[in-house]
Automatic annotation (TrEMBL):
PANTHER family assigned: DIGUANYLATE CYCLASE DGCM-RELATED, REGULATORY COMPONENTS OF SENSORY TRANSDUCTION SYSTEM
Name used for this protein in its record: diguanylate cyclase
Cofactors (names): Mg(2+)
EC number: 2.7.7.65
Species of provenance: Pseudohongiella acticola
Length: 553
């Protein structure tokens, strides 16, 4: 009988919806039997067939009205169709009586290595040349080894048009894998440099994303595991499990769930253990139960936006980007699964794949932003901790530890600028009696008072330090020792002239100071020598009756 016809001289792609006819048979029937089945025109509502292991038949004919033979390519939109048996025959379409040839056939399958394919293409594709003025009749039997999402979205492309289109398509794949590879390497480097396990888990997550989609879009079979038929056909469940495992591992560490939400953390840990068990079962040959578990694992990642939101509400600041990233990805994943298994939203597989590629790129980028935010926060916390370790808690001045670091910095600066470095050691006079008379709290207030005066009288570049007890140090660069003496004297006079008011009592106080040159053109003292020398100067000041400054240049 006459088949619905499509003219191939279109220099474009032709969707077979509305043109081809389809039929369904229970088991693998022969072509002769199939030709006796009732066929009906394929309409858009017929495309998604749901999860099925029935054989679906398509039939149509290709007309070449041109005066030279035309090459064309035929393929569906699904990347994981298992078998496509194509029956075809060429016949003249003019009324000239000629013997009609028998059907030839070609089996396209992903149950054999990639090299056995007719075309070097990620989907099962059939190629044929229709002679000038001839018609090619085509019957196609489509099947899955085990029930899967059957779709009847097929197109015919003129050969040249197919080549152009697949080039553009592979360019997009290249860009997508490029972005993900850069993020994977970047996060690995971050993990090494910053010693951040989260970044390493993120790298594993990006790797598992690339693997999973490499399986789903057929590019992995084409380029990476061309001979590994087992991985191509049985690897999906393992890939889903690995993806979900890595997503959970990264999320648990990144959101610090063991601190923030210990119960959720434990639940996720058990889920991960179940995923490992399922993967082991799969490797031992189990199928149906693992299929269910792997779909469950994939579905369980849809909970991550909520986990992120809860963590954010509990004060994990960097969880917000995590939350946005997973929300977007969850929507994409849900749409992709709905599209494959139902007739909603009825998009083409290529459209779904493009959406997935864009959304995974944005997702992994957003997660990278989240990691960046976390790393910056850790760095801030580290600097704050370091700052705290260098501060005296009572007065807020630097402490002894800061003195050593600052001195080393000033030595380097002296080598560059040649400006001498001086050190003043200041000690309160008879401070013990202040404590004894007015109490320890009063003593504390007096110490803070001196700290304030020190800061008021020093410049931004000078370093004020509480060296211990009632001893303070001023470390600074100046043109000459007289300038330093003036500064220290101003501090001494200010301190002695303005008593401290505490609990309604006026506390009178004075201080003594020693000033020395630490580094100039002639002198370069070690920290130990500086302290010895300045101690001597201070001792002299105390010995001479206190409330004075002694300079030993
Ligand atoms: N209130 C208060 N007192 C402190 C603190 N740290 C040390 N002191 C006291 O400071 C006093 C230091 O006394 P000394 O340096 O021995 O002697 P002084 O009484 O100041 O006498 P001279 O230094 O010889 O003038 C001790 O009584 C310490 O208890 C502190 O943080 N707060």
């Amino acid at each position: 009988q006459a088949l619905p016809a499509v003219d191939i001289n279109l220099q474009d792609a032709t969707r077979l919806v509305g043109i081809a006819e389809f039929s369904v048979s229970d088991a693998a029937v022969s072509l002769e039997e199939a030709r006796r089945l009732g066929f009906q025109t394929l309409w858009p509502t017929d495309i998604s067939r749901g999860l099925t292991n029935k054989v679906h038949w398509l039939r149509f004919s290709v007309v070449n009205s041109a005066s030279q033979s035309m090459g064309w390519v035929f393929h569906g939109d699904s990347n994981y169709l298992d078998n496509m048996q194509v029956y075809f025959r060429d016949r003249g379409d003019t009324g000239v009586a000629r013997a009609v040839p028998e059907f030839g056939s070609r089996l396209l399958t992903d149950q054999q290595p990639f090299s056995s394919r007719m075309l070097d293409y990620r989907k099962l594709a059939f190629e044929h040349d229709t002679p000038a003025g001839a018609v090619t009749d085509v019957y196609v039997a489509l099947s899955y080894e085990q029930a899967d999402a059957m779709r009847l979205e097929f197109s015919i492309y003129e050969r040249r048009y197919f080549d152009d289109r697949s080039r553009a398509e592979y360019l997009l794949f290249g860009a997508w894998y490029g972005v993900l590879s850069v993020l994977l390497l970047g996060s690995l480097m971050l993990a090494l440099i910053m010693r951040q396990p989260s970044a390493a888990y993120y790298a594993a997550f990006v790797g598992s994303t690339m693997l999973m989609w490499g399986l789903l879009n057929g590019v992995g079979f084409q380029y990476l595991w061309s001979d590994n038929v087992y991985l191509q056909n049985q690897g999906f469940h393992l890939a889903y499990l690995l993806f979900a495992f890595c997503a959970f591992q990264f999320s648990r560490h990144f959101l610090r769930l063991s601190d923030v939400m210990p119960r959720i953390n434990r639940a996720m840990w058990y889920a991960q253990a179940l995923m490992v068990a399922a993967a082991a079962l799969r490797l031992l040959g189990s199928h149906d139960i693992v299929l269910m578990l792997s779909y469950l694992a994939l579905a369980s990642t849809l909970s991550l936006p909520i986990v992120g939101l809860r963590a954010w509400q509990r004060g994990v600041r960097h969880a917000r980007w995590f939350c946005v990233a997973w929300l977007m990805y969850s929507l994409t994943l849900t749409l992709a699964v709905l599209n494959a298994a139902t007739s909603f939203p009825g998009w083409s597989m290529d459209a779904v794949l493009a959406m997935v590629q864009v959304s995974t790129s944005v997702e992994v980028l957003l997660l990278m932003v989240a990691i960046g935010e976390r790393v910056m926060q850790i760095d801030k916390e580290r600097r704050e901790a370091l700052n705290l370790a260098h501060r005296d808690p009572l007065t807020g001045l630097g402490n002894r530890r800061l003195l050593v670091e600052t001195y080393q910095r000033l030595v380097r600066r002296f080598e560059q600028t040649g400006v001498p470095v001086f050190l003043g050691l200041i000690d309160l006079d008879e401070f013990k009696s202040v404590n004894d008379r007015y109490g320890h709290d009063a003593g504390d207030v007096v110490l803070c008072r001196l700290a304030d005066i020190l800061q008021q009288h020093s410049r931004g570049d000078d370093t004020c330090i509480r060296y211990g007890g009632d001893e303070f140090v001023l470390l600074l660069q100046a043109d000459n020792v007289e300038t330093v003496e003036q500064i220290v004297e101003r501090i001494r006079i200010r301190f002695s002239e303005r008593p401290t008011l505490f609990g309604g009592q006026m506390i009178r106080h004075t201080l003594s100071a020693g000033v020395i040159t630490a580094i100039d053109q002639n002198v370069r003292l070690s920290p130990a020598e500086i302290l010895m020398k300045v101690d001597l100067a201070l001792y002299e000041a105390k010995d001479a009756g206190r409330n004075r400054t002694i300079v030993r240049a």
